[in-house]
């Protein structure tokens, strides 16, 4: 139960923080400063807490990946409005763009995560299933890790966290 709540907080946090940072510096990551990173972390934290609070009331919504992406993007929009003023356009333009990019990142992570999980699941042998390797993190046994590329392994670990 606690690990599920932590996952509900961490995923939006990890999706909103880079989206906010990229939009704040308008795509030029070389312009990012510690101040930008702090504001992006605050935005990600508020978005993660917002999604966590909303998940307490409406848990049935979180079964649809499009609804999850919309909720994450919406919470990032409100968090971006709270944390700082816009760096371009009108008052809400940067927050809208940040929320949209967060939604896109959320959909991409969900899509890649499902493909990677199915790929990793196909690499499990019958003897591993009989031994009780039913938890996702137990897929990272030495026999399974030989078949995964480094990129797949990093993506898999990021999704599990």
Describe this entry's structure for a reader.
- By secondary structure, the protein is an all-alpha fold.
- The protein folds into two domains: 2-111, no CATH class; 123-161, no CATH class.
- The chain contains seven helices and no strands.
- The protein has helices at residues 2-24, 34-57, 65-83, 93-122, 126-130, 142-145, 150-160.
- Helix 1 packs across helix 2 (34-57), helix 2 crosses helix 3 and helix 3 (65-83) runs antiparallel to helix 4.
- The radius of gyration is 18 Å and the shape is globular.
- The protein starts with a helix and ends with a helix.
- 26% of the residues are buried.
- Residues 128-140 have low confidence and may be disordered.
Helix content: over 70%
The mean pLDDT is: 75
Radius of gyration, whole Å: 18 Å
Strand content: under 5%
> Separation of termini?
14 Å
* Sheet/helix structural class: mainly alpha
Number of domains: 2
Question: Which shape, going by the Cα principal axes?
Answer: globular
Query: How are helices and strands ordered from N to C?
Result: HHHHHHH
Helix tally equals 7
Q: Work out the number of β strands.
A: 0
Low-confidence runs? 128-140
Largest sheet: none
């Amino acid at each position: 139960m606690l690990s599920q709540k932590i996952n509900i907080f961490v995923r939006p946090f990890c999706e909103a923080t880079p989206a906010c940072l990229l939009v704040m510096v308008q795509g030029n990551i070389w312009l990012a400063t510690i101040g930008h990173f702090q504001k992006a972390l605050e935005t990600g934290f508020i978005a993660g807490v917002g999604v966590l609070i909303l998940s307490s009331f409406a848990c049935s919504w979180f079964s649809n990946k499009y609804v999850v992406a919309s909720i994450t993007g919406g919470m990032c929009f409100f968090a971006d409005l709270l944390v700082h003023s816009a760096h371009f356009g009108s008052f809400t333009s940067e927050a809208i763009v940040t929320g949209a990019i967060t939604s896109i990142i959320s959909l991409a992570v969900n899509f890649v995560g499902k493909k990677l999980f199915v790929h990793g699941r196909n690499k499990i042998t019958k003897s591993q299933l009989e031994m009780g390797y039913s938890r996702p993190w137990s897929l990272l046994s030495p026999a399974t890790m030989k078949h995964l590329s480094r990129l797949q392994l990093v993506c898999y670990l990021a999704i599990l966290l």
